[in-house]
User: Fold this.
Amino acid sequence: MPKGKRGEQAEELDLVPIMNLVTILIPFLLMASSFVSLAAIDSTLPAIGQPPETTTEDDEPPLNLSVAITDEGYTVMGNDDALSGEGEDKGAKIPCRKPGCPTPDSYDTKDLTRLLGEIKDRWSDSDEQNVILVPESQVPYEVLVLTMDATRNDPDTTEDGRPRELFPYVVIAGGIQ
Assistant:
């Protein structure tokens, strides 16, 4: 053994307790950590081409409900009487709570859900379940997700103990430039 400065012999370190501790800690830390968590939101892309002509004169036209998302708020359009209008005024407008919609929370999703609930009540005889989202290109992803949640169901109204289903099938269209 090598000798120290003053002729003393150096002791050997016992590393076994530290190695045992590391051996126990590594599997524990691996089990306690979460590496990746993923979530998926079901949506479909719009169909390309002309829609098939399946309506007859006795059938009422489809709702064709769409929600435009801009930095001013929402514009809900479709073949519903409450959404009628001409030119620029076409559709029901739901403005943001704060001018310019600076944050995702400034979009009025509660009012959007309320309006869609009224439309769903008027169209209860049909099997309309689709809504088309048309976001502006600058709209943050979080706003798109909040809007999808607001159009799918109404958590304030329950049916059989579950939130009322509004328009569960969301189609994301090309954004407004």
